[in-house]
Amino acid sequence: MQSTKQTDQPTNTAAPRTVERRHHSKEFKAEAVRLAKEGGRSYRDVAQSLDLDIGLLRKWAKALDAQGTEAFRGHGQRTAIAQEAHELRQQVKRLKEENDILKKAARYFAANPS
């Protein structure tokens, strides 16, 4: 005879709650911050009227103050300085590889004169 094990624990049949992420354009973020700063309204009022979290609105304001036109670049977009640093690192890597090849060639020709 085989025994079967039964549990008395209830099974969770409810679907997990998912919250859909909203994506806001750069212009929307800048306008929301402008309304809070220049519109004579509080951050809380602006956030509530736009159905935003007040912390998110403050985060946008901080980013806009710190980065100006570079704020809200999107995912994977580098600032001009970060892009230049990335390109320079790649150039250094390529030059090191070329230098290693030239060193190997010089050693070869020094060891095997024609």
Can you give a write-up of this model?
- Helix 1 crosses helix 2.
- The protein folds into 2 domains: 24-75; 78-114.
- It has helices spanning 26-38, 43-49, 54-67, 80-111.
- The chain has 114 residues and is mostly helical.
- The N and C termini lie far apart (88 Å).
Strand and helix map with partners:
Blueprint: H1 26-38, H2 43-49, H3 54-67, H4 80-111
Helix pairs in contact: 1-2, 1-3, 2-3
Low-pLDDT ranges: none
**Which strand-content bin applies to the residues?**
under 5%
Beta strands, count: 0
The SSE string, one letter per element, is HHHH
Give the end-to-end Cα distance, rounded to a whole number of Å.
88 Å
Based on Cα principal axes, name the global outline: elongated
Determine the oligomeric state from the structure.
single chain
- The number of domains is 2
Summarize the structure.
The chain has 114 residues and is mainly alpha-helical. It is built from four helices and no strands.
Structural descriptors:
mainly alpha
